[in-house]
Write a sequence for this structure.
């Protein structure tokens, strides 16, 4: 457990994606999610999926 | 009546309580300790100081020494009877080593007690489950995603991989929306936000609002750079979205071997 003055804002997965140069793909998935408003978005190549935490998925 | 002496003695007696609270409200919650007024700080330290002294008495005093209540009572009463005060100081002088040792020992108890109480509250998530244990740094709960573990809030904090923030900011040329991934934030001395740091930020004017998004939309202006820092005083409101990331197995394998320097 860590006690830092600010909370960890990005997970290890996201930091690794950034290091490997996949941030734009991640943002692509975010924009897709916001565009579709379905609480889920995927990058064009389908490698990254983002899901809104706490969102109730539409039936 | 010697009020100054009584006050000093009272502060010395309460000092383990101050120490306990200093370590309970440490790191991300330290602002909560410092933003209190001195009377509030003194009042809030009474109960922990009392409990630490009881524990200290049972552990260090009772087995080996006899507590001289009369000396403590004389000093706390603020009496102006110089013979009584002299006798009390004489008594303290004779037992100075034991008294100093006792205060060293209870200082250790206060530090360990403060840190371990915080550890128990944070680890068991009592602060998320009940407002009774909640720290006053509300921005910590919002920006860490721990707010998702509050009762009646859907979602779980441990699912969150990153936060995407929309910030509405006033400018001379109109109201702007900045969008980006939350990277960091700082608090001011009142405990409110001072600045927020976004990465991979873009902006557009609010007047260019339209019902749907378009990825290649030319309303957006990308802001390259590591962080985009926004002073909180310019912010009208914040919209925060918590995201969980899922990767295809091949991408997962690709990034698996990468090492990240994370804060310990």
């Amino acid at each position: 457990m860590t006690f830092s003055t600010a909370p960890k804002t990005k997970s290890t997965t996201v930091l690794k994606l950034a290091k490997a140069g996949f941030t734009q793909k991640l943002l692509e998935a975010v924009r897709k999610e916001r565009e579709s408003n379905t609480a889920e978005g995927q990058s064009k190549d389908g490698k990254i999926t983002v899901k809104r935490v706490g969102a109730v998925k539409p039936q | 009546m010697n009020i100054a002496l009584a006050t000093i003695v009272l502060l010395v007696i309460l000092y383990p309580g101050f120490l306990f609270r200093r370590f309970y409200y440490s790191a991300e919650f330290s602002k909560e300790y410092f933003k209190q007024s001195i009377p509030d700080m003194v009042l809030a330290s009474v109960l922990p100081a009392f409990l630490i002294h009881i524990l200290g008495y049972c552990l260090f005093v009772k087995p080996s020494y006899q507590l001289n209540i009369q000396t403590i009572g004389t000093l706390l009463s603020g009496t102006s009877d110089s013979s009584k005060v002299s006798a009390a100081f004489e008594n303290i002088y004779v037992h100075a080593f034991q008294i100093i040792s006792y205060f060293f020992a209870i200082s250790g108890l206060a530090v360990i007690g403060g840190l371990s109480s915080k550890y128990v509250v944070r680890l068991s998530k009592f602060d998320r489950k009940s407002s009774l244990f909640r720290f006053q740094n509300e921005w910590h709960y919002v920006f860490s995603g721990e707010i998702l573990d509050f009762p009646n809030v859907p979602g779980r904090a441990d699912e969150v991989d990153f936060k995407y923030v929309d910030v509405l900011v006033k400018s001379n040329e109109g109201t702007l929306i900045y969008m980006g991934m939350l990277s960091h934030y700082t608090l001011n001395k009142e405990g409110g936000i001072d600045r927020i740091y976004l990465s991979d930020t873009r902006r557009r004017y609010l007047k260019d609002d339209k019902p749907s998004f378009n990825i290649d939309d030319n309303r957006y202006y990308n802001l390259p750079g590591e962080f985009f820092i926004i002073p909180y005083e310019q912010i009208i409101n914040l919209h925060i979205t918590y995201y969980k990331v899922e990767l295809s197995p091949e991408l997962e394998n690709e990034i698996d071997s990468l090492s990240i320097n994370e804060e310990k």
About this structure: Chain B touches chain A through 53 residues (CB under 8 Å). The two ends of chain B are 53 Å apart (CA to CA). The first strand of chain B starts at residue 162 and ends at 171.
